[in-house]
Design goal:
Number of helices of chain A: 12
Oligomer: heterodimer
Number of domains of chain B: 3
Number of strands of chain A: 11
Shape of chain B: elongated
Structural class of chain B: alpha+beta
Largest interface: A-B, 27 and 30 residues
CATH superfamily of the largest domain in chain B: YVTN repeat-like/Quinoprotein amine dehydrogenase
Number of strands of chain B: 30
Radius of gyration of chain B: 37 Å
CATH architecture of the largest domain in chain B: 7 Propeller
Strand order of the largest sheet of chain A: 7-8-9-4-10-11
Largest sheet of chain A: 6 strands, mixed
Number of helices of chain B: 17
Radius of gyration of chain A: 18 Å
Largest sheet of chain B: 4 strands, antiparallel
Strand order of the largest sheet of chain B: 1-28-27-26
Order of helices and strands of chain A: HHEEEEHEEHEHHHHEHEHEEHH
Helix content of chain B: 25-40%
CATH class of the largest domain in chain B: Mainly Beta
CATH topology of the largest domain in chain B: Methylamine Dehydrogenase, Chain H
Strand content of chain A: 15-25%
Shape of chain A: globular
């Protein structure tokens, strides 16, 4: 796999001091990624980033900095918006996700996503979790049962819902719904899980549970999480990327970025001088 | 804060709040109340159809006569004056109001001669024949004609003897007693007399007033060895029915006065036939018997093409011998009198005895309908006269005739028939609502199978797939279709489209087959284009791509269909359908209506379901796409179920619209009230029947009320459908649409 990597990892990194990333296996990489919602107004400017596999990577930055846009580039969710333009390359496992050889459905199966607001389908808990496998062609009942259970276990929801799998997912609490969405994403057995501010609409206790869940996922999945809660980024992530006005300012392992930022902008942001 | 200004201001706000609350409450309840009132009004107008008749009894006192010698009675059309005829020939006209005598006259009889039989000639007229014990048949006429002086009406009574006929071959001493006399005078000036003499012979005498010629027949030999107990002419005189004491029936054809023809004879029970009567229209025959049974018959064409009198109905059996049956001159109602003095009022079509009058312990000697059939006068053996006024406005309808199969005269089987007006007074209106309900449902069905797929697929396309700028054009365009007056659609469908469709039936069918095939083919060709090149086209380009294919299929169908027609269907598909499949092709048929009505319904279904589909949160679509679902899967599995409530409501509203739609079905269906599922036939819908027939329905008449009942049915239909839609829609929304 890694020999297929075309991207120059050293170029993708903003600091030569970071050794740890060099040792990681990279799963997502971008090359001079420019993204336009409207022509001539780039939302992402020359982003080069390399995200390590099976680690938790956080994107932080002020509102409108492009962190969600970048996240949505990875599973091409931005394609739903009419008239967007993407320049540059996005490589996942070394494959250009915009190439004709990649089926969009396969990409999205491999790159799961959890949205800012929980959005369970108006169906039973079971049907919600089984939805991904089903649309991807899994029909065996026993297989689906197993996937539903393991996904719910991983999302730390199994204990709470195992007796009411056939109840409507809409009867769950907000935090449970969000963990259900995580379980739903896990049911596709993705390599990567994108989380777009998954806890921003939740109370502190539910947020804590989500963070616990992310903790559980570490090591098995590549998790990319967008957050504007810097404490959360510090708590859950291995690596953190700081973005501003469409540009990737700094990308480093979390501890270094928070304790010893390389850029003045980063320091000003994490110390709360703006944002 | 507590300045007087502020408190004034708060008061003002409170007052406007209160007023608004009252207005809104009154408005809301007002809507409900008016719907309930409409419903009540429709009920009020249609309920009399099934209400039982009521009767008012009026004792007129003792007739000016000794007991037991009254032979016959009669009434004028205003039921102001009545008359009775005594055995000795005196006729007395009297006022019903106070039983005072208006006029007296008499038939001149010989001494010791007395009247022993009496028969009125024509329904509702007072020309009658009497038979005497001296062998004379005297035909006479009692006239009670209204005269108007200033503003008051008086009835002028007169009496004249038309003809006195003495039966030939008198017995030496006693003369020939005339029993079982019957007489009729038809509209062509023929008079028919028939009687049975002492020897039991059945004799006929026919007088043609145009030719001034008499014909006489003795048809006893045609009957064989029987005892005749009752005879009856139809009022046209063309039929003669004879009943015997053993229960035999004979049917003679007298249409040729020179040649009497025995058409049929049969026996259906052993009980003596005591009374025969034809109902108005000369079709229905009532047979009353010794054992109290009363049966209804009329001629029905059998498989071999011959008509046979067929037993249609047995009325409730009475406890004693039926002595008299009299048909109403207005409709198919009648009354019977039995030996116990009970009067039964019945109606042939509804198969029911509608009223029972238990008269007195005294035997009834005579009873007569008033000419308008709104009352009857009865005289018993004590010469007590009673007038019953009958309130029976709609005897021809009950729940069975409105909703069930009825065996109408002239039909081979019981059937659902809607045929409200005919050419003559004798025509019986047929009010089965089933063909109308069927028509409405049929039209709705064809409209829905045409419009639901089109409207829903368009809604799905516009809300989920179409580029935004296309959607912005398509949606309002379809919505403008709803503003097209239905009379315009009906006009186009009925006068332009249906002849075109008839002319190019084969082309239409060819297109029906060709378009889906070509459509699938073009999709296949589209898929053959490499994906990276395909993606370079602007969004929606695939539609433009399909247009040439569709155009090609149109041209193919139009240019090659006639050859196909020549080749496969002998040059004319319509004729071929009729010859080969026995399918009758009407120009205005359900296809055309389905198409036209569909046009009226599509905008409703489209708009509402498009809204429902668009209101499904994009987050759900995104979530399913993010899980690797294709766009089609996301639509089918997530968006459609979530919008199911709205889509269901849309379909139901469209259904309600189709059911209530009037002008289109009126103009494009041909309005034939037949019950046939074939798409090539027309139908008559409830709404169209109301629109067409209400102008010719007399206020408060039966048709008028039946049309109100039809309106009530329509109201109930749409009410039930809308309530059902609301209920189901609500359930679906609760299940799927909580986001």
């Amino acid at each position: 796999m890694s020999d297929k990597m075309v991207v120059d990892i050293g170029k993708a990194l903003t600091s030569e001091k970071i050794n740890s990333i060099n040792e990681e296996k990279i799963i997502i990489a971008t090359e001079n990624l420019n993204f336009y919602y409207v022509a001539d107004k780039p939302a992402l400017i020359d982003v080069n980033i390399a995200i390590p596999e099976k680690k938790v990577t956080a994107f932080i930055g002020p509102s409108g900095c492009g962190k969600s846009t970048l996240l949505r580039c990875f599973n091409r969710m931005n394609d739903l918006i009419p008239d967007i333009k993407v320049h540059g390359k996005i490589l996942i496992d070394g494959d250009d996700i915009h190439s004709n050889n990649i089926r969009l459905e396969d990409l999205r199966k491999k790159v799961g996503m959890v949205f800012q607001r929980s959005n369970p389908f108006p169906m039973s808990i079971y049907e919600n979790v089984a939805f991904g496998p089903k649309v991807n062609g899994e029909n065996s009942k026993s297989e689906l049962d197993a996937v539903v259970e393991s996904s719910l276990v991983q999302a730390d929801l199994w204990r709470e819902v195992k007796d009411r799998l056939n109840d409507s997912a809409l009867d769950l609490s907000g935090g449970q719904q969000q963990r259900l969405c995580i379980a739903r994403a896990l049911a596709n057995k993705p390599d990567i899980i994108l989380m777009d501010e998954p806890a921003s609409a939740l109370d502190p206790i539910s947020t804590g549970k989500i963070e616990e869940t992310i903790e559980e996922l570490r090591g098995n999945y590549t998790v990319v999480i967008v957050t504007h809660n810097m404490q959360q980024a510090a708590r859950v992530s291995d690596y953190t990327a700081f973005m501003m006005v469409g540009e990737l300012v700094e990308f480093n392992d979390t501890r270094s970025l928070f304790t010893n930022p390389n850029k003045k902008l980063t320091e000003e942001y994490i110390t709360g001088r703006f944002g | 804060m507590n300045s007087p200004d502020s408190s004034k201001y708060h008061k003002k706000i409170k007052r406007s709040n209160d007023i608004a609350k009252i207005i809104i409450t009154v408005g809301g309840y007002g809507v409900i109340a008016s719907i309930v009132l409409i419903l009540m009004f429709l009920l009020y107008e249609s309920l009399p159809l099934i209400i039982s008749p009521s009767v008012d009894e009026k004792d007129l006192g003792i007739a000016d006569s000794k007991a037991n010698d009254i032979i016959a009675t009669g009434l004028d059309r205003y039921t102001e004056v009545g008359y009775f005829l005594k055995a000795k020939g005196q006729i007395v006209f009297f006022y019903l109001a106070d039983n005072s005598t208006a006029y007296k006259d008499s038939i001149s009889l010989e001494e010791s001669e007395s009247i022993i039989s009496f028969e009125k000639g024509t329904l509702g007229k007072d020309i009658f024949a009497v038979g005497t014990n001296k062998g004379r048949i005297i035909t006479a006429e009692a006239k009670m004609s209204p005269e108007y002086h200033r503003n008051s009406r008086t009835i002028k009574c007169s009496f004249k003897t038309n003809e006195i006929y003495t039966v030939e071959n008198l017995e030496e001493n006693t003369g020939e007693e005339i029993s079982s006399l019957d007489f009729t005078e038809n509209e062509d000036g023929f008079n028919y007399w028939g009687w049975v003499n002492q020897k039991g012979e059945l004799k006929l005498r026919i007088y043609d007033s145009d030719e001034e010629e008499y014909y006489s027949h003795n048809i006893t030999s045609m009957l064989g060895d029987v005892n005749i107990s009752s005879i009856k002419f139809s009022s046209s005189g063309e039929l003669l029915m004879v009943g015997t004491d053993k229960g035999d029936m004979f049917w003679f054809d007298l249409s040729d006065p020179e040649d009497v023809l025995l058409k049929d004879n049969w026996r259906f029970s052993n009980s003596k036939i005591t009374k025969l009567e034809f109902l108005i229209g000369d079709n229905s025959l009532l047979i009353g018997q010794q054992d109290g049974s009363l049966t209804h018959w009329f001629p029905v064409r059998k498989k071999d093409g011959d008509f046979k009198f067929t037993r249609i109905n047995d009325f409730e059996k009475q406890n004693s011998k039926i002595t008299s049956i009299q048909a109403s001159p207005r409709n198919r109602s009648f009354f019977t009198i039995n030996e116990d003095g009970e009067i039964y009022l019945g109606y042939s079509t509804t198969k029911s005895i509608q009223l029972k009058l238990d008269h007195t312990e005294n035997k009834i000697i005579s009873a007569t309908y008033s000419p308008k059939a709104d009352g009857l006068i009865v005289i018993d053996t004590r010469s007590e006269m009673i007038y019953y006024s009958i309130d029976n406005d709609h005897p021809e309808t009950n729940l069975n005739t409105l909703f069930g199969k009825v065996w109408y005269e002239g039909y081979e089987n019981p059937a659902f028939v809607w045929q409200t007006t005919g050419g003559s007074d004798e025509f019986e209106s047929k009010f089965s609502l089933i063909p109308l309900i069927f028509g409405t449902l049929k039209g709705t069905f064809y409209a829905m199978i045409f419009s639901i797929p089109l409207a829903l697929l368009t809604a799905i396309y516009v809300s989920q797939f179409a580029p935004k700028k296309w959607a912005r054009i398509i949606k309002p365009t379809i919505e403008i279709m709803a503003a097209l007056p239905s009379v315009v659609i009906g006009f186009l469908a009925g006068l332009y489209f249906s002849p075109l469709f008839e002319k190019h039936l084969i082309t239409a069918f060819a297109l029906l087959i060709l378009i889906p095939i070509v459509f699938l083919m073009s999709i296949y060709v589209w898929k053959l284009i490499p994906e990276n090149r395909r993606l370079r086209f602007p969004q929606g380009a695939h539609l433009v791509f399909i247009i040439p294919f569709l155009a090609a299929s149109f041209i193919t169908a139009i240019s090659f269909a006639p050859y196909f027609e020549d080749l496969l269907f002998n040059g004319n598909l319509n004729q071929w359908l009729y010859n080969t499949l026995a399918i009758n092709y009407d120009q205005r048929n359900s296809f055309v209506v389905g198409f036209a009505l569909g046009f009226a319904v599509i905008p409703i279904i489209f708009t509402i379901s498009e809204d429902a589909l668009s209101n499904v949160p994009k987050s759900l679509t995104s979530a399913s796409l993010a899980l690797g679902a294709s766009q089609w899967q996301a639509v089918m599995k997530i968006v459609l179920p979530a919008a199911a409530g709205g889509i269901f409501a849309a379909i139901m509203l469209g259904l309600g619209r189709a059911i209530g739609e009037t002008m289109i079905v009126l103009m494009a269906t041909g309005n034939t009230p037949i019950m046939d599922l074939s798409p090539f036939n027309g139908f008559r819908a409830m709404s169209a029947a109301i629109a067409v027939e209400i102008p010719e329905a007399p206020v408060d008449g039966t048709l008028y009320r039946v049309l109100f009942l039809t309106a009530l049915m329509l109201f109930i239909f749409t009410f039930v459908i809308n309530s059902f839609a609301a209920w189901i829609g609500d359930k679906l929304r609760k299940k799927y649409a909580r986001f």
